[in-house]
From TrEMBL:
<keyword id="KW-0732">Signal</keyword>
<dbReference type="Pfam" id="PF13416">
    <property type="entry name" value="SBP_bac_8"/>
</dbReference>
<protein>
    <submittedName>
        <fullName>Carbohydrate ABC transporter substrate-binding protein</fullName>
    </submittedName>
</protein>
<dbReference type="InterPro" id="IPR006059">
    <property type="entry name" value="SBP"/>
</dbReference>
<dbReference type="InterPro" id="IPR050490">
    <property type="entry name" value="Bact_solute-bd_prot1"/>
</dbReference>
<keyword id="KW-0813">Transport</keyword>
<feature type="signal peptide">
    <location>
        <begin position="1"/>
        <end position="22"/>
    </location>
</feature>
<comment type="similarity">
    <text>Belongs to the bacterial solute-binding protein 1 family.</text>
</comment>
């Protein structure tokens, strides 16, 4: 999945406010009736088409799809739809835009919505549902999500008890990048717990290498990598229920639990013995571009860098990303066994604005294990993964994609979507970023969290 969607969606929330918000629910009800065009489906007797024949003969029909996924990733998307056309006779009219997050709102307000849109964050989905133009997912889609995805994923596609949108692609943020060769040379092992990770950091520091390197500069979005750190820490220290309460402002942003989690992060990022390898002191984290944050690992100047799976695209050309390569990643360890295996991440959701048979058929295809494997095979260069448990990990070309899929498919995994992307834009794309930057450069935990709490909109 493309790296740009992880932040532009949050920046666009301001533009969607005029559509109104709907609350999120977790019920399974509200699925739409399944439509059919009648006739004999072209997919009768064809492998992989079994679930699509119920929609009848869709020959000559078309489905418009609007998305933020652009070249070069677009080619793999379109290739993965070829089986759908073979099965149904319908074609897919694909439109990508680098202004998607703003333009989808404009189009919906103007009554010019596409048949289907790939929504990159739950907050935007709720807002679009509030327009009254998103249609409930048909039963075959709900059945697929129940079978192939966890309840947490279905919950993010559900608004006010009605299920609207199946998950599509995904990313994992709960990773720490490292150099397998550096670890082997020094006899270091991948840590299993947070305490093990701190002990390893102390061991690395004694060699004269700074254990950690980091960068949070990202233009207008400077500070976002620190928000991810805190979100991961809250999940590990206090679990998914407290995380949800915090994200939804059911507890204050400066609750003692959140302060404890941020101090846990500070034990690494604000520790002058630990950072900032290859760049300077603690303050240098704020001025180091997030794209560059982990690169000192290749020079032996630091050993660890917490960043998402999509960071694989930031390593220089020729870098071998694998378990025995130049760099790889491991799961960010937990602080206890109380909350399973928390996974922070992102993804897209398939929202429909029409319930014609061909639209429902395409929704059904995209929510299936069949499409997930078609998409994996259409992406030989790697850079895509799904939380669909029917995805055969061997079909993923990239070792980091395989690791991401294994992490998402782990029975102990408890997935939570990026928190700042779900908060009001004044916080999630504003004060949260700003105050985490100030915190890195010397502001106290209590002041940073109080300032964010004070910025939360009253309505």
């Amino acid at each position: 999945m493309r790296t740009r969607t992880f932040r532009t969606a949050a920046l666009a929330v301001v533009a969607v406010a005029g559509l109104g918000l709907a609350g999120c629910g977790s019920d399974d009800g509200g699925s739409a009736d399944t439509q059919t065009a009648g006739g004999t489906s072209p997919g009768e007797g064809v492998d992989g088409c079994e679930q699509l024949t119920q929609f009848g003969d869709l020959t000559g029909k078309s489905v418009s799809v609007y998305t933020s996924i652009l070249p070069p990733e677009q080619a793999a998307q379109e290739q993965s739809y070829e089986l759908f056309t073979k099965c149904t006779g319908a074609k897919v009219d694909y439109e990508g835009s680098d202004q998607f997050e703003t333009q989808i709102v404009v189009r919906v307000k103007a009554g010019n919505a596409p048949d289907i849109a790939y929504i990159p964050q739950p907050g935007l989905l709720k807002t679009l549902v509030g327009s009254g133009q998103v249609v409930a997912a048909p039963q075959p889609v709900a059945d697929n999500v129940d079978k192939w995805f966890g309840e947490d994923w279905k919950g993010y596609g559900t608004v006010d008890g009605t299920f609207y949108a199946a998950p599509l692609g995904a990313s994992v943020k709960s990773f720490v990048w490292y150099s397998p060769s550096m670890f082997k040379k020094n006899g270091w092992t991948v840590p299993e717990t947070w305490d093990d990770m701190l002990k390893l950091s102390d061991e690395i520091e004694k060699t004269g290498i700074k254990p950690w390197c980091a960068g949070i500069e990202s233009g207008e979005a400077t500070g976002w990598p620190t928000t991810d750190w805190l979100e991961d820490a809250v999940l590990r220290e206090d679990g998914p229920d407290v995380y949800d309460q915090w994200v939804n402002h059911e507890i204050p942003f400066n609750d003692d639990k959140i302060a404890t989690a941020l101090d846990l992060v500070g034990g690494i990022l604000k520790n002058p013995d630990y950072v900032n390898g290859g760049f300077g002191d603690v303050d240098s984290i704020a001025t180091t571009a997030f794209q560059d944050g982990g690169l000192p690992i290749l020079k032996g100047q630091c050993a660890l860098h917490r960043q998402a799976s999509f960071y694989a695209a930031q390593w220089p050309e020729g870098t071998k990303v694998s378990e025995d390569g130049d760099v790889f990643a491991f799961y960010l360890p937990t602080t206890s066994d109380d909350y399973g295996k928390p996974v922070l991440g992102g993804g897209e959701f398939v929202a429909a604005f029409d319930d014609r048979p061909e639209v429902q058929a395409f929704q059904t295809y995209l929510s299936s294990d069949v499409w997930a494997n078609e998409k994996a095979k259409a992406t030989p260069g790697g850079g895509w993964v799904s939380a669909n448990t029917g995805l055969d990990i061997d079909n993923l070309a990239s070792p980091i994609d395989q690791l991401s899929a294994e992490t998402l498919q782990d029975p102990e995994a408890v997935f939570r979507f990026d928190g700042s992307d779900q908060m009001p834009s004044a916080v999630g794309a504003g004060s949260f970023w700003k105050e985490m930057t100030a915190w890195i450069t010397g502001e106290s935990t209590s002041d940073a969290l109080k300032n964010i709490e004070d910025s939360w909109p009253s309505s």
